[in-house]
User: Fold this.
Amino acid sequence: MSLFKKVAIIGPGLIGGSIGLALKRKRIALKVIGISRRQKTITLAKKLKAIDSGSRDIRIVKDADLIILATPVHTILRLADILKKIAREDAIIMDVGSSKEEIVARFQKLFCRYIGAHPLAGSEQQGVASASPCMFKNSLCVLSVNRKTDPSALRKITGLWRLLGARTVLLSPASHDKIMAMVSHLPHSVSFALMGTVPQGYLKYAAGGLRGTTRIAGSDSILWTDIFLSNRKNILKAISAFENNLAGIKKAIQKNNRNLLERKLRQARERRELLTRVQEL
Amino acid sequence: MSLFKKVAIIGPGLIGGSIGLALKRKRIALKVIGISRRQKTITLAKKLKAIDSGSRDIRIVKDADLIILATPVHTILRLADILKKIAREDAIIMDVGSSKEEIVARFQKLFCRYIGAHPLAGSEQQGVASASPCMFKNSLCVLSVNRKTDPSALRKITGLWRLLGARTVLLSPASHDKIMAMVSHLPHSVSFALMGTVPQGYLKYAAGGLRGTTRIAGSDSILWTDIFLSNRKNILKAISAFENNLAGIKKAIQKNNRNLLERKLRQARERRELLTRVQEL
Assistant:
């Protein structure tokens, strides 16, 4: 028996499309529909079998028992009031946005059966053309919970992510946003800044170091503008902590302090080795 | 006919060992000898066929027609006076250090046939165990030249790198150091600082973004201390430029300026696309 009868994916792009592909391939849902502002996305998602059918009209979600929001954060927030008027009262609403405090607060006010999810998967690529049904295999999915969270909806969503191949972990929206500011949003801001610093004429001398550190600077700029602004408080703290750290390295270089500089680099290297040993997600 | 009779590699590690493997496999040298402070390195380099024989005693370089310095920058600098007393008058001396101004100045004072080289290859890995004869295939090797450079030595060294599979480009030591501060040393310093910022307890939530941006923070801390200190002036300028860029992103987040932030991220993303289009080195 399928876990859901009709799943609506709003924004069937890289993440939404990957969920759709897996839902259909594993028969987790009887029917998967897609909603996008762009007809091209709907046509492509249908062709790639990420959705059975789709529309630019959001009203088609009205009889879905699971509605997934997979758009940039700003759009997720904007859709809350609209969905409230359309969705079934007993529908489970889930978003897959990368920041959670603002979204969870907004959606829990309107929906009883809302669950915030953040699959730690994806890449700098965009669109349903890069989607894959295996996107979440062996990945970690953070579910944002608090005392308002509906237990039966949480059970179903936990089951969904397990079927998609992910391990799930429960974090409060506040903890999620604090942790993600450090492990994801900070590296992205640093990567964007790094790419903005290197003069264009020097790029032909770039080797693996610059390429690796700036891969995620190729990420969607609207998506990341939304994430940064939605997690403002935490990302600003994380950037400040990073600035202090870099200033420490800079000062050791300025003062020609070999021992101090070597110690700082060695400590960073040791922590990087820890990261290698932590299970690849 | 081999290009060299006897090549001495001081520091047969990742880069020195890779040169040795290629020299022997392609029969570019009749004999390759290795010098290391550690007997373990010599034994392993011999076993892996990166050198024919080796010693902890640097005096074995006395009859080599090419001496390659492949140690950290600080050690390269320290070896100049020692080599002057041992090396043949007509031997070609080449270093493969990642910063060039200081090294070229020191060696050109002592040696007529000195060439500074910087192969833009390698990885965060270390040691001859990670060496490969294909390390330089399709890579770029910067040769540091000025009006003191001996043309016949330059011709031979250019030929050597081409045989190793690299394209060569000529840059003054000053230009080399300025460019490398941006495309290599800056990403390394940022990567070390990033890894030093993320709390250890958060590492289990890290996905591809943090892993990619901090891969090079796993690089050897002594090697990079030397590079940073040897290219102090340029790396400090590069870090300052980066700090300004990051401060711009931070300010746009602080001010909640969606348009400005999105423009900054988009510009970074466009430059990253340029980097993708530049020939992979």
User: Anything to note?
Assistant: Residues 176-277 of chain A form a domain with the 6-phosphogluconate dehydrogenase C-terminal fold fold (CATH 1.10.3660.10). Chain A touches chain B through 86 residues (CB under 8 Å). The mean pLDDT of chain A is 95. Chain A has two domains: 4-171, 176-277.
